[in-house]
Design brief:
This protein is of the alpha/beta class. Strands 1, 2, 3, 4, 5, 6, 7 and 8 form an 8-stranded mixed β-sheet that branches. Strand 4, helix 5 and strand 5 form a beta-alpha-beta unit. The chain is globular.
């Protein structure tokens, strides 16, 4: 049986975190995947958070279905609201763990995860599970940032202290903050052949005064008010006074002229070999999650399952 999640999510879902997550779209966060999406596809979005990327996928597959999966149930209310506001009826959300997905082999055309593997305890097992639930001939698509690949201008004194502290806290929580550079290796360890993997990179770049103010303010708030702050202090890595100082550093950077911040991401598109037909891979006794998924496919309104089901 697959091991349950052992890592602690470094950011949590404080408003300052969701301020960033709700900015994300399929266009600015999954452009490498978009050419592969067809209108009839079934897509699993692992670590869907507030559901903005998930909703974009649903709009792209009007003849298909999208399932959003999230380990933290509290954020799924916002995800459902996102889907409802866009009048999307081909999308549902579940609580689940990427290390042990509640779906049988060969369920989805695309299995996608954005900024997820950097936070999990066993990224290789996560990729094995994503591969398992993808259909033969399907795609596993992953994008993760690389914190040591972040660069900024100007070099305000104290920004390096933030970067070093983040690396320390993220690793103490069981994650890998430089996941972007590891994706190709992790995919091969998960069983994908090298010729079935397309590995690329892309960036986010915040360079207008408005983007600079937004990015600096959300990090200044996140440093002192999110789960990052709580675990950093509880783990003995820093103090509240030091966090307050770093928050001021972020605000000072946000006030500089000609500010510029770039975030490097690694990306992988992994093709699952087209071997067995989908029908041969579905077990006789489906899990609760899959039973609900099948009900959704048949047109029933299944909603979200309880955390303890």
């Amino acid at each position: 049986m697959a091991q349950a999640e052992s890592a602690v999510y470094t950011h949590g879902h404080h408003e300052s975190v969701l301020r960033s997550h709700t900015w994300r779209t399929a266009g600015n966060s999954a452009a490498y995947l978009l050419p592969s999406i067809l209108p009839h596809m079934h897509i699993l979005d692992v670590g869907c958070g507030p559901g903005t990327i998930t909703a974009d996928f649903a709009a792209m597959v009007p003849e298909g279905l999208v399932t959003g999966l999230e380990h933290a149930p509290e954020v799924l209310e916002q995800a459902r609201s996102t889907a409802a506001a866009r009048a999307l009826d081909n999308i549902r959300f579940f609580v689940g763990d990427v290390h042990a997905l509640g779906f049988p082999d060969g369920t989805f055309d695309i299995v996608h995860a954005h900024q997820v593997l950097q936070h999990v305890g066993d990224p290789v097992q996560a990729l094995r599970e994503m591969r398992r639930v993808a259909k033969p001939g399907g795609i596993v698509a992953v994008r993760d940032s690389d914190y040591e690949g972040m660069i900024w201008y100007p070099d305000v004194d104290g920004m390096d202290d933030w970067a070093k502290l983040y690396q320390l806290v993220a690793r103490s929580n069981g994650g890998e903050p430089n996941a972007g550079r590891h994706l190709l290796a992790w995919a091969r360890q998960a069983g994908f052949d090298r010729e079935d993997i397309t590995s690329t990179a892309s960036t986010w770049c915040y360079n207008t005064p408005q983007e600079q103010a937004w990015w600096s303010s959300l990090w200044a708030d996140r440093i002192v008010a999110s789960s990052f702050a709580q675990t950093a202090v509880a783990g003995g890595h820093t103090t509240e006074q030091e966090l307050a100082r770093i928050a001021k550093v972020w605000r000072r950077w946000g006030e500089q002229e000609d500010g510029w911040f770039a975030i490097l991401h690694g990306e992988i598109l992994c093709r699952v070999p087209a071997t067995l037909p989908h029908e041969d891979l579905v077990p006789e006794s489906p899990t609760t999650e899959y039973s609900r998924y099948l009900s959704f496919v048949d047109g029933e309104d299944i909603g979200i399952h309880d955390e303890d089901e």
